[in-house]
Amino acid sequence: IGGPGGADLSVPLQGVYLNKAKIAEGGKKQRKNWTSAWVVLGSDHLLFYKESKQETVVNLKPGNRPDEVDLRGASVEWTKDKSSRKHVIQITTYAGDEYLLQSDDFPTISKWRDAIKQTADRSCSG
Ligand code: I3P
């Protein structure tokens, strides 16, 4: 199992709780506010849910739709400059929105970084 040189993307990633902070919108800096989000990777986008149970009452309320991040043309990189936390990745979308994702568990964030980056790289050309 597992292709040469990298994460095995033939198995879809299940959702995971990661720490998330949006730090810019359209290139304009925003005040950082870390929250925990349930992160789901789609074919060319990321979804941020408040909770893992998508059918729960809170997620069905109007206005509680997941935040959707378009990964087409996005860059995904490790960053040490944008936070004092360890294991932080930065996603910069084509539209200039910037997100930080972080987990204290390195294997978890590393696996998600690889998968998100491969999704972004693959979807930008197609
Ligand atoms: C921010 C808060 C963040 C911190 C950020 C602070 O303060 O402490 O946790 O980011 O640092 O500005 P506040 O809650 O008053 O907005 P990190 O945890 O990622 O370091 P920053 O301004 O250097 O980004």
TrEMBL record:
Transmembrane segments: none annotated. This is Rho GTPase-activating protein 15. Residues 10-121 form the PH domain. It comes from Alosa alosa (allis shad). It comes from the Eukaryota. It is found in: Cytoplasm; Membrane. The chain holds residues 70 to 195 of 479 of the full protein.
